[in-house]
Design goal:
A hairpin with a 3-residue loop joins strand 1 and strand 2. The chain has one domain: Rossmann fold. Helices cover about 40% and strands about 20% of the residues. The protein is an alpha/beta fold. The two termini are about 30 Å apart. The mean pLDDT is about 95. The protein contains eleven helices and nine strands. Helix 2 crosses helix 3.
Length: about 300
C-alpha cells in the first residue's frame, strides 16, 4: 500500500509517497507535474523488491517551504532538497530516477555525491546548468519557440498568468510537449490539484527567471551553484531515457551527452513518447531501473 508520509528538513515540510521494502529508489518528478506521475511505476518497482520513495518537489502537492525560507526554485534548491531528504530518511545509498526538474536534481546528486548514488535513470540526459553565465539565445528557432513559457514567466504578465491560469497553462504544456500522448482528464485533474500549493507560483517563476539570468540566487545555494557552473561529470552507472516525440526537450539535444558521463552509460530513445516519461512509458522506466540494478 502506498502511503503519503511527511518529513521535516531545514527548509521544507516535505511530503512523499513510500511503498515497498528493499533497496531504496527515489523517483523525482518534473514540471508541470507532480509525484503522481510515477503512480504507474511505483507499484511495479515495489513488487520487484524495491523500497520506492516519491517526493513532491518544493511548490507541489503537500510539500511546504517552512517559514523564514525563500520561495525559490533554482536548481541548487531542488538538489539540496534531495540531499536533505536522503539525510532525513538516513539513506546511505539509493538509486535515482528523475526527469525535467527531478532529472536535474538527480544529475546533481550523482555528480556531487556519487557515493550515495548506486545508479541513475536520467530523463532528458545531462541537465546540470551553468547559472552564473548569461544564457545565449539559440540559433535553433524550434527550441526558441518551444521555450515560450520560460520567456513568458520572465515577465510580470507571465507571473500573473501562472497565478490566474495555472491549470490552463499546464494543460497547454502537456498537449504541446507530448503530441502522441492521450491522457485522461482524471490524471490531469489529479496532477493539477498539486499546483494549488501556496508556494507553487513563486517557485515556478523563480526557477525560470533564475536560470535565464532574470532573478537573483538565494545566497543559501550560491556555493552549490558555483560548483554546478563547472558542469561536473557523472561517474555512476546511468541510463538516459528520451522521448523521440518530446517537443520541448528535443531528443537531438542529448545525442552527444555521453561526454558528460565517465561511468557506464547508455542512451535509449523511446519512439512515440513525448516529455512526460513516467506517465507515457512507465515500463521503460521500470526496465531501466532493473537493468542498472542487475549490472551494479
Amino acid at each position: 500500500m502506498t502511503e503519503l508520509r511527511r518529513v521535516q528538513t531545514e527548509t521544507l515540510d516535505l511530503a512523499y509517497f513510500e511503498i515497498g521494502d528493499g533497496f531504496p529508489v527515489v523517483l523525482l518528478h518534473g514540471y508541470p507535474d507532480d509525484a503522481n506521475t510515477y503512480k504507474y511505476v511505483w507499484p511495479k518497482l515495489a513488487e520487484l523488491g524495491f523500497r520506492v520513495i516519491v517526493p513532491h518537489l518544493r511548490g507541489h502537492g503537500q510539500t511546504r517551504i517552512r517559514d523564514g525560507h525563500a520561495r525559490v526554485g533554482q536548481q541548487g534548491a531542488i538538489a539540496q532538497d534531495l540531499f536533505d531528504l536522503l539525510d532525513a530518511l538516513s539513506l546511505q545509498q539509493v538509486g535515482l530516477v528523475g526527469y525535467d526538474w527531478g532529472g536535474r536534481a538527480a544529475c546533481i546528486a550523482a555528480a556531487l555525491q556519487p557515493d550515495r548514488v548506486k545508479f541513475l535513470v536520467a530523463g532528458h540526459g545531462y541537465l546540470i546548468q551553468d547559472t552564473l553565465s548569461a544564457p545565449a539565445p539559440s540559433a535553433d528557432q524550434e527550441i526558441e519557440r518551444a521555450y515560450w513559457y520560460q520567456w513568458y514567466l520572465c515577465t510580470a504578465r507571465g507571473a500573473a498568468g501562472v497565478q490566474q491560469n495555472r491549470k490552463v497553462m499546464g494543460r497547454a504544456l502537456w498537449d504541446e510537449w507530448s503530441p502522441p500522448w492521450v491522457f485522461s482528464n482524471e490524471d490531469f485533474e489529479e496532477c493539477a490539484a498539486s499546483w494549488d500549493n501556496p508556494d507553487y507560483v513563486d517557485v515556478v517563476v523563480h526557477s525560470y527567471r533564475h536560470r535565464n539570468g532574470e532573478a537573483a540566487s538565494d545566497p543559501r545555494y550560491d556555493a552549490l551553484e558555483r560548483a554546478l557552473a563547472e558542469k561536473p561529470k557523472i561517474a555512476v552507472p546511468t541510463i538516459v531515457l528520451h522521448g523521440a516525440d518530446d517537443r520541448v526537450s528535443f531528443a537531438r539535444l542529448t545525442a552527444d551527452h555521453a561526454t558528460f558521463f565517465t561511468g557506464p552509460y547508455e542512451r535509449r530513445v523511446l519512439p512515440g513518447v513525448g516529455h512526460f516519461l513516467p506517465r507515457e512509458a512507465p515500463d521503460a522506466v521500470v526496465q531501466a531501473v532493473l537493468d542498472l540494478q542487475s549490472r551494479a
